Amino acid sequence: MSLLRESSQGVWGSRWTFVAATAGAAVGMGNLWKFSALAGANGGAAFVVVYLFFMVLVSLPVLIAEVVIGSRGRANPITASQNLAREAAVSSWWQLMGWLGCLAGLCILSYYSVMAGLGIAHIDSIFTGQFKGLTAAKVGEAFNQLLADPWQLALWHSIFLALVVLVVSTGVERGMARMARIILPVFVLLLVIVVLYSNRMGDMAAAQQFLFSFQWQAITPEIVLAALGQAFFTLSIGLGAMMAFGAYMPDGRSVAGLLSAVVLIDTAVALLAGLAIFPLVFSLNIAPSTGPGLMFVALPYAFGHIEHGELFGGAFFTVVALVGLSSGVALMEPAVAWLVERCKFKRLFAALTVGLLAWGLGIVALLSLNEWSDVRWLDRSIFNWLDYISANILLPLGGLLIAIFVGWRMRLEVVRDEFYKHSGVVFVLWYWLLRYIAAPAVLLILLLPLYRWLV
Ligand code: PHE
Ligand code: NA
Question: Its topology with respect to the membrane (predicted)?
Answer without folding.
Answer: Multi-pass membrane protein
